[in-house]
């Protein structure tokens, strides 16, 4: 996946990649799908997959390979960004950059938020404007983390996209 995705493409991803439901089985399917996709597409590189409800409940958590302590911090920062702004962390970062702004300009603590990709909002098809949980991937390059999240959702739910 290219790291040159446009904001418009990212908006389309968020609009098209909604899910029919979210329960324990669904979270397990998405998380397991993300692990499988990461292993297949990125040669088994180390990665952490996290699905957390906006309420803070952990719905899925798994590690592959050698995860570093920094990966835990990245998961938190990406997840916080997606929950606060209800957008993928990659889109948030691209929109920020397009305006020539920084985290500091928005009054955001860089230990709590990030402008890097890898976290994607999970929304229900019947309520597509409300983020109910966040799928976060850490361990690869940020656009690759984003790719894992997006393709896990597409593959698990067999979603045909137009972007």
From TrEMBL:
One Pfam family, short name: HbpS-like
Record GO biological process: post-translational protein targeting to endoplasmic reticulum membrane
Cellular-component GO terms for this entry: TRC complex
InterPro entries listed in its UniProt record: PduO/GlcC-like, PduO/GlcC-like_sf, YBR137W-like
PANTHER family attached to this UniProt entry: PTHR28255, UPF0303 PROTEIN YBR137W
Name under which the protein is recorded: Heme-degrading domain-containing protein
Highest classification ranks of the organism: Eukaryota, Fungi, Dikarya, Ascomycota, Saccharomycotina
């Amino acid at each position: 996946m290219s790291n040159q995705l446009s904001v418009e493409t990212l908006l389309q991803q968020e609009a098209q990649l909604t899910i029919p439901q979210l329960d324990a089985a669904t979270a397990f399917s998405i998380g397991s799908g993300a692990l499988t996709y990461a292993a297949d597409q990125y040669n088994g590189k180390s990665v952490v997959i996290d699905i957390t409800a906006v309420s803070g409940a952990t719905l899925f958590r798994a590690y592959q390979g050698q995860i570093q302590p920094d990966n835990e911090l990245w998961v938190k920062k990406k997840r916080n960004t997606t929950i606060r702004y209800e957008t993928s962390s990659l889109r948030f970062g691209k929109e920020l950059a397009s305006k020539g702004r920084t985290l500091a300009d928005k009054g955001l603590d860089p230990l709590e938020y990030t402008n890097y990709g890898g976290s994607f909002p999970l929304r229900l098809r019947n309520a597509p404007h409300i983020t109910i949980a966040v799928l976060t991937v850490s361990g690869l390059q940020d656009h690759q983390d984003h790719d894992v999240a997006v393709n896990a959702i597409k593959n698990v739910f067999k979603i045909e996209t137009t972007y």
